[in-house]
Amino acid sequence: MNQQVVDAGAGLSVSELSGLRENLNEQRAFRLDQLAQLWQGAPARAQRARERAAVAQLEVHIQLCASARMVLADVEAALERMEQGTYGICQQCRHPIEPARLRIVPQARYCGRCHQVREARS
Ligand SMILES: [Zn+2]
What we know:
By secondary structure, this protein is mainly α. The chain has one domain (2-87). It has four helices and no strands. The longest helix is centred in the middle third of the chain and has 71 residues, at 14-84. The termini are far apart. Zinc ion (ZN) is lined by residues 90, 92-93, 95, 110-111, 113-114.
């Protein structure tokens, strides 16, 4: 049996073969140890991933709240301008805001031109 293994090993001597076996056994032990450590670390790793996902969700939530608050402020200001009879007048140049623009953005504070200028500046 041993003699057959030596023949299959392309002329390797018995001592070379046993050296390689030792090498393979060391690699096997190393990988088993590595896998055991990875397995042990899995729960903590999963927990950290969940925490990161929760933080990301919270950030999205905060961002949504912030933009909802901004739009609400614009909408309330537009309603106030309606009450005061200044609705549809550009807050910048005092010219009428284009009706087509108001149909799309009823809470618009500025005419299209002033809006573009402000956007370009910010
Ligand atoms: Zn304007």
